[in-house]
Design goal:
Blueprint lengths: L3 H7 L5 H12 L2 E6 L5 E8 L2 E12 L7 E6 L10 H11 L1
Antiparallel strand pairs: 1-2, 2-3, 3-4
Bound molecules: zinc ion (ZN).
């Protein structure tokens, strides 16, 4: 289980991804999250909050054993190369539950 402390450590204490990811989770914009037991690669599809017709693709690699730390991540949004955008954090929070 990924703990909230692990996510806060991953985003270096930035609050904005936590707030934004909560809104994503509550809005239902996070459409699909899959977990592969062999590679622990997470793939997700999320609708953009400002334009629900636009689909964002999120990829997150987590070290073994599950839930290890975030090795790398990417989202197709503008901030997605940092691996710390709200969409990626929403995926991490989703797998916490
Ligand atoms: Zn994003």
């Amino acid at each position: 289980m990924i703990r909230i402390e692990d996510i806060v450590r991953h985003i270096d204490g930035f609050v904005r991804p936590l707030d934004g990811s909560q809104q994503i989770l509550e809005s239902g914009y996070l459409q699909n999250v899959g977990i592969s037991d062999e590679q622990i690669d997470l793939r997700a599809v999320c609708l953009r909050a400002s334009n629900a017709h636009e689909v964002l693709l999120i990829k997150v690699a987590i070290s073994k054993p599950f839930p290890g730390r975030v090795l790398e991540g990417k989202c197709s949004c503008v901030a997605g190369n940092s691996a710390k955008c709200k969409h990626l954090v929403a995926v991490l929070r989703y797998v916490m539950t």
